[in-house]
Write a structure and sequence with these properties.
By secondary structure, the protein is mainly α. The chain has a domain of 102 residues. The protein is 66% helix and 0% strand. The longest helix has 36 residues. The two termini are 13 Å apart. This is Oxidoreductase. Keywords: Cell membrane, Membrane, Transmembrane, Transmembrane helix.
Length: 164
């Protein structure tokens, strides 16, 4: 196996790992929204769903539902991640920070982890198997020999350049 083949394999692996990360984080985020809005798959921690229009619980849950679904599909990944990350930063500072300085002291670990994981996705993009990538290709499934379409770049392209 040549150095070019190895770098191409590493690039594809990274791209699929990003996609898996996006889908898992998006699904978990989506589940928080459905729990708060519909008590599905389980009732929220408070035991009752948010009242329609209630600030910030209902609005936060709508963001979780919509952005979580968008992330799972890889549709508008960077925009959805930006909005979702901001909502988790708000949740942390508004709801958790007053109870203690550190996330472990104020039960804000989940908000902090979601905030930073989603923040990372702003820069990583959707990875492989995302609707964003399919749309950028114009619906084509075939790719150029380097695995990226013209004008589309991401973290795997930079890895290919480093490993070449």
């Amino acid at each position: 196996m040549t150095n070019t083949s190895i770098s191409r394999l590493q690039g594809a692996s990274v791209d699929y790992a990003i996609a898996a990360f996006r889908v898992v984080v998006g699904f978990l985020f989506f589940c928080h929204g459905t729990s708060t809005l519909f008590a599905w798959p389980t009732a929220p921690h408070s035991g009752h769903t948010a009242a329609v229009g209630a600030w910030p619980s209902w609005w936060g849950a709508v963001i979780q539902l919509v952005c979580g679904a968008a992330l799972v599909l890889g549709l508008g990944t960077r925009i959805a991640a930006f909005l979702a990350s901001g909502s988790m930063a708000y949740a942390y500072f508004w709801s958790h920070q007053p109870d203690g300085v550190l996330p472990i002291q104020n039960n804000g670990e989940l908000s902090a982890i979601f905030c930073w994981a989603l923040f990372l996705m702003i820069f990583l993009g959707g990875g492989a198997l995302s609707l964003d990538r399919l749309i950028a290709r114009g619906g084509r499934t075939a790719q150029a020999d380097d695995g990226a379409t013209a004008g589309e770049s991401g973290p795997t392209d930079e890895l290919r350049e480093v490993n070449a």
